[in-house]
Amino acid sequence: xxxxxxxxxTGFLGTNLIQKLSQTYKVTCLTTHKHKFRExxxxxxxxxxxxxxxxxxxxxxxxxxEAVFLLSNSSHPRxxxxxxxxxxxxxxxxSIRCLDQIYSVSTPRLIFASSxxxxxxxxxxxxxxxxxxxxxxxxxxxxxxxxxxLSAFASIKKATCIALRISxxxxxxxxxxxxxGVISIFLQNIQLRKPISLFGDGNTTKDFIFVDxxxxxxxxxxxxxxxRGFEVINIGSxxxxxxxxxxxxxxxxxxxxxxIRRQPSxxxxxxxTILNIEKAQDILNWSCASSLRxxxxxxxxxxxxxxxxxxxx
Length: 313
Fold this sequence. Notes:
The chain is of the alpha/beta class. Helices cover 37% and strands 19% of the residues.
């Protein structure tokens, strides 16, 4: 059974990932905090350490990981521009340090959770991995910088490094009280009869993807024999949906009317982007299987069971 390391495995994406991986692999989860909405996962070894200062050499020598997932990130599109050096210091610098230590003793396959929602310039057409990059925000620059170092390590160490440019994931275990995940935030607020803030006219088009589809793509990266060297792969639905349409669908699945508070557009928000996912289909034999409507219903059920019905009256 292969040993896998997940760095940042108790957040939204990480929790869903290790739930799936632990069914097939021996998983070590390096994290600073416990899962927010569930108990520890059976058969997963948890190491509660700050990844920014952790000594990876000895762990990698002992475990001989076949693959490492780098998910830890404290950056956000709306805040990174206001703390550029802090964003570099907390995300880019420790990522390079982590890679340097891991590849000093071993050459596991490295899968990095990059951004497909913020990395590209806006376009009315779908964007491929070779499309123009958006280097106008600190958030997108930090993602691209880490990708660039992955490319260097892949070349220098003859390793396989994959940057998955994930569009806008949503689903169970996403905290609707955080800064990320407009679908989860809207879904909770509409259920609680709270107003939702809509920045701009609501016609911004985003590529939303259900977390189960993201996790499937990430797991396929572990074993795919088509991956060599450095690869950038888009992971999205390939379908553009406006925020107005999302609100309409949420109103439909909840049978509730949204109280919309319109706000001015935010310049740091990513442009409208729809990902071209042909490369993922070819290399990983993967496609997005979940519809928005069915996924909203699953997310709604999870929120009801884990958040809405547990609130104090």
